[in-house]
Amino acid sequence: MSNKGPELNLICKRLTKISGSDWVAIKFEKQIPANDIESIRFCEAVYKAKNKHISLSLCHICCDGARRCFGWLKNNDVKLAQGLSEKIGIERDAAYELIRSVPVLNEKISGISLGRDIEGDVYISYASPESAMKLIRCWQKMTSRNLNTEISGIMSVCGNVAVKSFLKQKISISFGCPDSRKYGGIEKEELVIGIPHNIAFSVCSMSS
User: Fold this and answer.
1) Do 200 and 15 form a contact (C-beta atoms < 8 A)?
2) At 123, which helix (H) or strand (E)?
3) What digits encode the pLDDT tens for the residues 112-132?
């Protein structure tokens, strides 16, 4: 094991070497980033960022769920719950509780940068179960602990992986949601895994 940690812009490559899956860095920006992308879902941007750098601001994210999770859409949980209730056939009150359980970023941001060659606040992979297992075993080797996580099929990539990993500073896992599987490029055999920067840096350092 090397005493020198990985270069910050190489963490995605190191995570890929460890797990065998592609990783994308997610950076929450205080300044509005320059961009030329059309309206897109966050989960779709994660998928496309494997091949090119993408910058997003409020006007570029077309999904209300993602806008809510990044703190850009407030006081809309009742409307989101109504839509969820109709979509999956549960009582509106139950749908509201599920919506309310999805984390919201607690600091003001102006944009989001995504790419494989930047330092991220969070790193996300659409990974096979085997790739997720390799990463978790590496984390277990580092911590001597099991991973405890809640699984949700609502606002999966934006709220229950990107934002949750950042806020709780822990590895988050989701099986996706219908929209992220329809639009976001998640394959049938893949799940979503997110890891905050500090843990990703430590895992990569241990594996150097």
Assistant:
1) yes
2) strand 122-127
3) 999 999 999 999 999 999 999
Cα(130)–Cα(20) distance, rounded to whole angstroms?
9
Q: For tokens 């020198």, what's the residue?
A: 4
Q: What is the pTM of this model?
A: 0.92
Euclidean distance between the first and the last CA atom of the chain, given in angstroms as a whole number: 6
Rounded CA-CA distance 66/62 in Å is: 8
Q: Which of 49, 25, 161 is nearest to 105 (CA)?
A: 161
Identify the three-state secondary structure at position 2.
Answer: coil
Tokens of 89: 């056939």
Q: Give CA–CA dist 95/80, Å, rounded.
A: 8
Asked if 25 and 11 touch (Cβ cutoff 8 Å), the reply is yes
- Unique residue bearing structure tokens 């139950």: 94
**Measured between alpha carbons, how far is 12 from 117 in angstroms, rounded to an integer?**
7
- DSSP letters of 67-96? HHHTTSS-S-HHHHHHHHHHHHT--HHHHH
CA 21 to chain centre: 15
